[in-house]
Design brief:
single chain; 445 residues; alpha+beta; four-stranded antiparallel beta sheet; 13 helices; 11 strands
């Protein structure tokens, strides 16, 4: 998609392409509205003000006439409630920039025609604890702060699907997001940073001190399970080849979550954040701490780090969102060489996402009759970890109906040992196997 691409025809066979064009066009347009508001505040050129304000007029006039979409929450500006929330955050920042230069009646029209009904859709969309609900709550809260709507602020902060409840429920004591996907953990941090920056600009950051503390720990926690070369493990349906720390996120978050890495990464960036709030100069960044053996309960996992070996072994999942069929899988490095690695997944629209990358053959798991853990998500348990961190044993008592599976990883001297146990509890013969995915060239004995 490009801005000058014509809209596809409104005819049978073009429905999805036409809907995608509308979504891309609207996202692009809304982002330019914020650019124009910023350029007006920077230059005082009324051309930018007139166009940005006219776009807010248009969306306030048109919102009630847009068809209601209900396949993934309630949305009218966009096709689903998540996109509704992310675009609302862009538009509410536009309002903050323009409001001092706009008559109260015009601002009230933006509030009543666009933002209040949009917030109502977002509040009606929040029904479960997941990353999308965090974006809902962040958008509703900032709309409430901008227009002094106490009921919206109360929903965003204190309701069962408000920020405090979501973070209390969704964040483990070791600071991992319960969907067990580090990419969605970063996405939760991104939503919270939008909220925290917006609250700060409105003089309300102190109202979110607890949320800020949790968000900073969420951002930092993936470092504890990083592999050599800052490679992140690929948990559940994360995209492949991710890094920990996520340096782009740390730089983008440094105005409210300052870290040495974030400040250093932001130093030479050309961005609105740096123009408005230049980062503190950093001469050097302290070295990152090394990964160590031990349990990682927030990921239903355990690490074995010994004698150059590094394994992250998982024994289950807590949430159905983004879960894959990967209980008892592990990823393994020796030094900085990947031995076993999860390939992640592809775009959700591809049949390969559901039919291959989410399934057992794409992971490093025991197989029973050619299949892995069923159902998923389901939780196993950590049974034992050696005091010196040289071995760990996990099990899944209900790996499949009537099947118990165990896995023990150990480092003995220079060797890495992987022991798999499967008990079927049936007199009927079962085909037992193990699938391993490696980037290495392999010659079988």
């Amino acid at each position: 998609w490009t801005p000058d691409q014509p809209i596809p025809p409104d005819e049978p066979g073009s429905e999805k392409l036409r809907a995608a064009w509308i979504a891309h066009n609207r996202i692009y347009n809304i982002d330019r509205v914020l650019d124009a508001a910023r350029l007006f505040r920077l230059t005082g050129d009324n051309r930018y003000f007139d166009w940005a304000a006219s776009q807010l007029d248009f969306y306030a006039d048109a919102y009630h006439g847009f068809p209601l979409q209900t396949w993934n929450g309630r949305a009218q500006l966009m096709n689903q409630s998540l996109d509704e929330a992310t675009r609302a955050l862009v538009l509410i920042e536009t309002v903050r920039l323009l409001k001092p230069h706009v008559p109260a009646a015009r601002v009230n029209h933006w509030r009543d025609g666009l933002f209040l009904p949009l917030a109502a859709n977002l509040m009606a969309s929040s029904r479960e604890v997941h990353n999308i609900a965090v974006w809902h709550a962040a958008a509703v809260t900032l709309i409430g702060l901008e227009f002094d709507q106490t009921e919206l602020i109360a929903f965003g902060k204190h309701s069962p699907f408000g920020l405090r409840s979501l973070l209390e429920t969704g964040v483990s004591p070791d600071w991992f997001w319960y969907e067990h996907s580090l990419s969605y953990q970063d996405y939760v941090v991104q939503a919270m940073v939008e909220l925290l920056v917006g609250a700060s600009l409105r003089g309300r950051l102190a109202d979110f001190a607890r949320e800020l503390w949790i968000t900073q720990n969420l951002m930092i926690a993936p470092m504890t399970v990083r592999f050599a070369d800052e490679d992140a493990p690929t948990l559940n349906d994360s995209p492949p080849n991710r890094k920990a720390p996520n340096r782009r996120l740390w730089a983008a978050s440094r105005r409210v979550l300052p870290t040495w890495i974030g400040l250093k990464e932001a130093e030479n960036q050309l961005s609105w954040d740096n123009l408005l709030d230049p980062p503190k100069a950093v001469d050097s960044v302290p070295p990152l701490p090394e990964a160590v053996s031990g349990p990682v309960p927030g990921l239903d996992a355990v690490q074995v780090v010994k004698n150059g070996w590094h394994a992250l072994l998982r024994y289950g999942q807590k949430a159905r969102f983004h879960a894959q069929q990967e209980a008892l899988t592990y990823e393994l490095q020796y030094g900085d060489t990947w031995i076993l690695r999860d390939a992640g997944t592809v775009g959700y629209g591809s049949p390969l996402h559901k039919d291959y990358f989410s399934r057992a053959p794409a992971h490093n798991v025991p197989l029973v009759n050619g299949d892995g853990q069923t159902p998923w998500p389901s939780e196993g348990q950590l049974d034992e970890i050696a005091p010196d961190g040289s071995s760990a044993t996990v099990s899944h008592p209900s790996y499949r109906p009537g099947v118990t599976a165990t896995r023990r990883l150990a480092v003995e001297g220079g060797e890495f040992i992987d022991e798999v146990g499967v008990t079927t509890g049936s007199d009927t013969p079962q085909a037992i196997g193990v699938v391993l995915n490696t980037p290495c060239a392999v010659t079988a004995d």
